[in-house]
Model the fold of this input.
Amino acid sequence: MTKKTGAEILWECLVREGVEVVFGLPGGAIMPVYDAMLYYPVHHVLVRHEQGAAHMADGYSRASGKVGVALTTSGPGATNLVTGIATAIMDSSPIVCITGQVHAHLIGGDAFQETDVTGITLPVTKHNFLVTSADEVAEVVREAFFIARSGRPGPVLIDICKNAQIEEVDFIYPEEVSLPGYQPPTHAPLEDLKRAAELIEQAERPVILAGHGVTMSDAVDSLRVFATKTQTPVAMTLLGLGAFPASDPLSLGMMGMHGEAYCNLAIQNADLLLAFGMRFDDRVTANLRTYAPRARKIHIEIDPSEVHKNVEVDVALIGDLNTVLIDLIPLVDEYDHEEWRAEIEDWRSESQARDILTWPDDGKLYTAHVIRNIWEATGGDAILTTGVGQHQMWSAQYYCFEKPNRLITSGGAGTMGFGLPATIGAWFAKPDHEIWLVDGDGSFQMTQAELSTAIQEGANIKIAIMNNNFLGMVRQWQEFFFESRYAGTPLIGPDFVKIAEAHGIPARRVTETTEVLPAIEFARQTDGPVLIDFRVEKEEAVYPMVPTGADLDKMIRRPIRKQPTAAD
Amino acid sequence: MQLTLIALVENKPGVLNRVASLFRRRNFNIESLNVGRTEKPDISRMTIVMENGNVDARKVEANLYKLVNVIDVQDVTNQPAVTRDLALIKVSAKSEQRAEIANLASIFRARIVDVAPDSVIVEITGTEDKIEGLVELLRPLGILEMVRTGQVAMMRGTASGVRYSPGANGFRETEQVAD
Done:
C-alpha cells in the first residue's frame, strides 16, 4: 500500500476525474495542496480575485460540458468565491470549488483566516463537504464530482483542513460512489408518458419551451426530432438559446421579458405548453395569474422541486430530459399545425417591421448593430460570453445561435462581472474556437482585473465593450418607470484602450459606424486577447420589454421608424 | 392544518443544519422538529411538523430530496400513524395542591416525576391534543416551566406514509444513473 499525503491524494483524484486545468489563487491554508500540484499534469491558472476563479470554472464547464474546478485558500479566499458559486447554482453549472481550511483542531476558535465556509456556502451549493482528515479526501472528491455532474448539475464545495492536506495515509481509490439518499431520476413512468401523448394529440396550438436542460441533458437532437415530427414551434429561455437552431422555421427565438413579441404572443395563445428542462422563472412567465391562460402544460424536468413550483402543470414527467424524450417520441404521431404556424408567422412579420436592424443608417452606433456585425463576421459560430444588462439581452436577440454551448451568460443570478472570467474559462475549454466577450462598461469594470490573467495565459479572446457610460439596464428602467431620474447610473468610465494597452493587450476605440467592421476584423486577425471599446448610443433601450408584473403579451414595443422619404 | 413528515437522513454532522437551512430559505415554517437515532447506527430520523400555509407535503418532500443526505421522506399526515409528544410541566404547588395535581395527572395517565416544597414536575406523553388538554387544566395552578419534545411519529403495521415524487426516493427501485 502506498502512503500519500492528503494533498497528493487530492491531485491524484482530480486527475482521475479528468481535471486538466484549475483556476485559483494560493494562500496559507491551501499551501500544501499548491506544493503537491507541481507533480501532477494539471495546469494552474492564477486569477487576480477569487470571484474570477469561480466564474472561470463556470465558463469552462459551460463551454466544455465538463466539471470546472476552482481552488482557493480559507477565509477571504473562500468567501470571494460565493458570488461565483451562487451564479453556478442558479444556472445548474457543475463546478467543484476546493478551499483550504485551518487545522481541524483550530476550528471554532476564530483562527487567522478561519471562516465557516461550509456554513456560508450551504444555501448556494448542491452539496458541500468539510474534510478534517486525509483519509476522507479520496471518497469526498469522488462524491463531489459525481454530485456536481449528475442529476441536475450544480456547484459542490470541498473545504479541506490544513492537517488533512499534510497527513499521510494509505491511498485507496474508491471505484464506487455510495450515496444512499442521492438517486437522480432517469425514466418517467409509462402512464405519465401516455397521458402526455394524449395531451399532445389533442393540442392544436402547441409551443415547446426549451430551457437549459436541453443542452445539459444532451437532448438537442431529441428536441429537433420531437419538434419536427409534431411541427411544434420552439421558444427558448435565455439559457436555452442554441438548443434549437435559430434559423429553423419552427424557432420562435427567446421568450420572456425581452423575448420576441411573436414568441410571447404564441405562448399566451397556446393551448399546450411543453416545458423541456426549464423552470418557469419570473423573467419568462411575467404575471403568473395570466400566464398562458388557455394552455395545458406538460413539464419534463429532472428536479421534482421545480415541478408545480411557479406554474401548476397537467402532466409532470420527472426524469432525465433526453431519456424522457426518447421514450416519448415513439408515442406521439406526426402533426402539421399549419394554421397555428401561419398565425405565428403573421405576428413574426409584424415584429420584424419594428426591428432595429431595419432602421436606416443614422450615423449612430447601436449595440444591436454591432452585435449583428460580430455575428456576421464570425459566421454565427463563435462562443459568445456576456456580462449582465442591456448588452446581454441584445446579444441574446441579435447573435442568432445555431448550436448549443455557444452562449455563456449568467441567467438566473444575473451576475455582473461574469463575462471576462467566464470567457477566459471558456477559452481553456475550447482554445481553438473563436470566443467573443460582449460586455457592458459597467459589468466589465467589476472583474476587469482578470485582464492580467488573460494576458498571462495568452488567452485568445476578443473583448467587445458596449460602452454607453451608463449602467444601461437600470437606466432603462429609470427611463420607463422612474421618470428618467438617473440615480446612480451614469458611469464615468476609464479609457479602456489605455487600460488594455497597460496590460499589453492590443485595443481600439470605435466611435463611427464605418469603423465597426474593420475593428472586428482587426480583433479576429490579431492573435491573443484584443479589446475594442465601442462607444455606443447612450440612451438606447432594449425592446420589446414586459414590465415586471405585467402580462407576458403586454409588451412595451419599439416605435416603428419609417424609411426617410423625399418629404423628410 | 398541520403536516407531519418523517425523514430518514444520514447520521452525519451538519445534516440538521442542512434541513433547517432549507426550510428557512424556502420559507417553510416549522412547528416542531424532532431528531433522534434509529435502529440503524448510520441513519437518523426526523419528525417534522409544519403549518401548511403556502406549502404542500409534495413540495416539502421534493425539496428535502435535493439534500444529498436525505434518504427517505414520508408524509404521514392523516395516515394511520402513532404520533406522540412528551412534555415536562413544572407546576407551582404547595402541599395542599399536590393531591389535585396528582388526580389530574392520573386522569391523563401522566406521572409526577419530581416533588419539591413549592412545585411538582408532571411528565405526560401523548398526542398533541391530550397534552394541550392537561396544560389547560394545570394553567390555573401556575405553570412555572414547560418543555416539549415535539412530535414523533410512526406508521402502524407495515404501511408506509405517502411518497410523491417518482424516482426521487432512495428506497424505491430506480435505475442507477451512470457516472
Summary: The two ends of chain B are 42 Å apart (CA to CA). Residues 82-152 of chain B form a domain with the Alpha-Beta Plaits fold (CATH 3.30.70.1150). The beta strands of chain B are 2-10, 30-37, 43-51, 70-75, 81-92, 111-115, 119-126, 143-148, 152-155.
